[in-house]
Amino acid sequence: MALLFLSPDDPADLWRAELQARMPGLDVRIWPQVGDPAEIDIALVWRPPPGELARYPNLRAILSLAAGTDGLVADPDLPDVPIARMVDPSLTRTMTEYVLLAVLRHHREFDCFERAQRAREWAYAFPPQAADRRVGIMGLGELGSAAARALVAQGFQVLGWSRTPKMLDGVLSYPGRSELHAFLHRTDILVCLLPLTADTVGILDAAIFAELPHGACVINVARGQHLVEGDLLQALDSGHLGGATLDVFREEPLPQGSPLWDHPKVRVTPHVASYSVPSTAADGVAANIRRVSAGEPLLHQVDRVRGY
Amino acid sequence: MALLFLSPDDPADLWRAELQARMPGLDVRIWPQVGDPAEIDIALVWRPPPGELARYPNLRAILSLAAGTDGLVADPDLPDVPIARMVDPSLTRTMTEYVLLAVLRHHREFDCFERAQRAREWAYAFPPQAADRRVGIMGLGELGSAAARALVAQGFQVLGWSRTPKMLDGVLSYPGRSELHAFLHRTDILVCLLPLTADTVGILDAAIFAELPHGACVINVARGQHLVEGDLLQALDSGHLGGATLDVFREEPLPQGSPLWDHPKVRVTPHVASYSVPSTAADGVAANIRRVSAGEPLLHQVDRVRGY
Question: Residues near A228 by Cβ (< 8 Å), separated by ≥ 6?
Fold first, then answer.
């Protein structure tokens, strides 16, 4: 049993140590020092080069280091083996924190206060109570559900749009395309936590923005490809949208020339909304490695047809 | 029974309507249209001019529109009648929101991201998990306790410093001056929610900042007089403190010439952290008006010797 570890961003040595603490003797090969490709059984990856995973003839499973597996399933040469997405308490907790922070910033009008501070202006603004502020979450999976619960706990009105109906305490469920219109009309702060699929690519476009109430804000923490950046800029500049918080972009790092960087209504962060910590995430990865050994189905397996 | 309403900032007509909805026929006199001062039984006030309340010979109680009553008890001519501070779900909820927002901004290093955005820099920063971040709250009254509970719910390590020991789930209690040293040494993000008294005026000074760990942040949402602004600036400029969020100031509005306005490590907001909404706050006020009529003690009565 040999594990391939391949990620440009994650700490390989720390991952090896955490996995070996749970599975002494586990053979971890850190890409590109792989040895004989035929010895690799399992790949633990983030953004592998397209075609790379086809090089391992005996691969039995792919474990993603990220919650979103859109990059993997987009690889036309991906071997036909089970894929598991990352589910990890630290990933969920950091995303919940970021969403709560971004929603509270818009709710409490911190963009206005930051502008006023630069102008040395003492300008009151008393926003509506949380109970009168409607936060709409697109995508109620692992991350969306956790964010929804935290926003309910803060007293917001929370709406959720998802493929299928979801029962979450205090969250109004708007399932399917037919409910999207009603969902958007009632959303003051929109949070995108959708998986990226053929159905959701480019979903945050002019048509969606036009359905939001005047002054609504948009938070994208899913994938850059969900957003049509030009449509967002137009909706902000026309005054229809009040602001945006963007953590993900079509091209990352965001190019120097992007007009998003210095737009007064846009807060840019560099894809940091959620991150997993090997010390907690290694539990779930080790559990899945044992399942592969035992010939059992993976936890959190991706449905390749659905795309997530 | 006539009620004097006196506030430069609160919506008088809305308050009258909300009170009369609960107590039909209540005689509400909006300052300065007071009529015969001898007819006033109760005063509902925010920042009355010093000496003003001494003009009402038959005053039986003073109800504060704010949680902090330091301005009232500082009036040497204040009549010797019971004072009640404002306790209101909306006041508590808005303060909790603001504290959560300010703590999350520091925790997730939004100051860094905002600087990076202005420089068009894509710079990762992955802060420690909330479980490894220690938030110390000075003052565990109505507002401090609620903020502490919300921070515990977000997974932070929460410490509380208060005059007397407090039992709050998940909050380490450091009571009294003797525990202040230990409390400060373990606090990464300090939140001041103390009442302003002779004991706490100027408490946020160089000595306190020196005891905080390197890189700690300070949030003041209590009163401007708690903070020695020059000491804060020095601790920020020396690099010892990482940042500050200030909602209250010695002089309000903050003077145009204050160096706080454009300090890169300081976020200024114009005394908006908490605000009550007459639609909810009128319940508690009406209850206290009825208590005065019935000769019963006030709810949330201020201890004049203690100062809050």
Answer: A202, A204, A205, A206
Tokens read off for B95: 């303060």
Predicted confidence at residue B292, as pLDDT, reads: 96
Choose among B93, B117, B154: nearest Cβ to A155: B93
| Res. B51: pLDDT tops 80 | yes
What is the C-alpha to C-alpha distance for residues A231 and A197, in angstroms, rounded to an integer? 20
Interface test with A, best of B103, B108, B249 (most A CBs within 10 A): B108
Quote the tokens at residue B203: 């408490």
What lies within 8 Å, CB to CB, of B151 at 6+ separation is: B99, B100, B103, B135, B137, B158
Question: CB-CB: which of A93, A117, A122 is closest to B253?
Answer: A122
- In this complex, which of B97, B130, B262 lies closest to A104 when CB atoms are compared? B97
B76: helix, strand or coil: coil
- Kind and range of the H or E run holding B139: none
* For residue B253, cis peptide bond before it (omega within 30 degrees of 0): yes
State both tokens at A269.
């962060």
Q: What is the DSSP string of A268-279?
A: E--S-S----HH
The ipTM (two decimal places) reads 0.92
For residue B272, give the 3-state DSSP assignment: coil
Type of residue at B199: D
User: Which chain A residue's Cα is nearest to B280?
Assistant: A129
Neighboring chain A residues of B267 at a CB cutoff of 8 Å = 113-114, 117
Phi, psi of A81 (to 5 degrees): -125, 160
**How many beta carbons lie within 10 A of that of residue A263, not counting itself?**
18
Contact present, B54 and B60 (Cβ < 8 Å)? no
Tokens describing residue B35? 């009529």
- The confidence score (pLDDT) of residue A277 equals 87
Number of helices (H) and strands (E) in chain B: give both, helices first.
9, 12
Mean predicted lDDT score pLDDT of chain B: 96
A212: helix, strand or coil? coil
Write out the two tokens for A30: 């850190």
A107/B120 touch (CB, cutoff 8 Å), yes or no: no
- The DSSP result for B223-256, as a single string, is -GGGB-HHHHHHHHHTTSEEEEEES--SSSSPPT
Determine the pLDDT at residue A304: 86
A83 membership: H or E segment, kind and range? strand A83-84
pLDDT of residue B48: 96
Q: What pTM value is reported for the model?
A: 0.93
Amino acid at B304: R
Interchain CB contacts (distance < 8 Å): A and B: 102
> Is B106 in CB contact (< 8 Å) with chain A?
no
| pLDDT surpassing 80 at residue A125 | no
Exposed (0-12), middle (13-18) or buried (19+): which is B35, by Cβ within 10 Å? Answer: exposed
Identify whether the C-beta of residue B254 lies closer than 8 Å to the C-beta of residue B270. yes
Between chains, do B277 and A129 touch, taking CB under 8 Å as contact?
yes
The pLDDT of residue B304:
86
Residue B7's Cα: distance from chain center in Å? Answer: 17
Catalytic residue at B271?
yes
Residues 6+ apart with CB under 8 A from A158: A134, A135, A136, A137, A148, A151, A152, A170, A171, A172
Whole-number Cα distances in Å, A7 to A1, A4, A15, A78, B32 = 20, 10, 11, 16, 70
B38 part of contact set with chain A, CB < 8 Å: no
Question: Rounded to whole angstroms, what are the CA distances from A258 to A192, A248, A252, B247?
Answer: 21, 13, 11, 34
φ, ψ dihedrals at B143, nearest 5°: -80, -45
Enclosing H/E stretch for B11: none
